[in-house]
Amino acid sequence: MHKSERLFQLVNVLKGRRLATTAAQLAEHFHVSERTIYRDIQDLQNSGVPIEGEAGIGYLIANCPLPPMMFTVEELSALLLGTKMVGAWTDPTLSEHAKSAMAKIEAVLPTHLKQSQDDSPYLVSSYSHDSKQQALNKQLRHAIENKQCLHLAYSDVNHTSTMRQIEPLGLVYWGGKWTLVAFCQLRRDYREFRVDRIASATTLSTHFNTSDDKKLSHYVALVTAKYANCTNKS
């Protein structure tokens, strides 16, 4: 285990315990020597982490706020990949926040991990997510957050144009295509609209309310139950 990762985990272990933990216990947990634990404790204390205690008695972290970037190397890698996806596949506002988050994450990555990012097996492509698509995603997101109805000009799979007034509930990314999950006021039921087939969207001043049987989590539960039932029958 790299030292930087061990230091992150050491802080998390001490934060999660109410009683002092001895260097021997920590050494056994991390499969290192007690001398290594003593050096790690000293390094953390020098960096401002409020660890209290002494050799032979044990250590604990004082009850005070700690810096938020206490992640393992694997967690940092996952967060970095996730922010790249947000930056490429959502809207301009979230993309800027994602870039800011990426800069903070990369600032605390160990040197060896920064180098390994260039050889990552994952490539996040922004192909087909142009500025027009991103602007529409932003409009839809704002309507969802503010619970505002939308008027859509939509083209279905048969290229038939329809006009719908909907209550937008959530955006789902299916690996290449965004889908807008909504409650259709005409059909009085859930409907899915592929975002790339939305010709235009107008945000209305009309607001709507969600309920236990009209919200994204309820839609997901219905879809999950449907596919689970199909699987059991097969």
From TrEMBL:
Q: Which Pfam families match?
A: HTH_11 (PF08279), WYL (PF13280)
Know the name of this protein? DNA-binding transcriptional regulator
Q: Which domain of life is it from?
A: Bacteria
- Matching SUPFAM superfamilies: Winged helix' DNA-binding domain (SSF46785)
Instruction: Please state every residue range assigned to the domain named WYL.
Output: 138-202
Q: What PROSITE patterns does this protein's entry cite?
A: WYL
Query: Which residue range or ranges hold the Helix-turn-helix type domain?
Result: 6-59
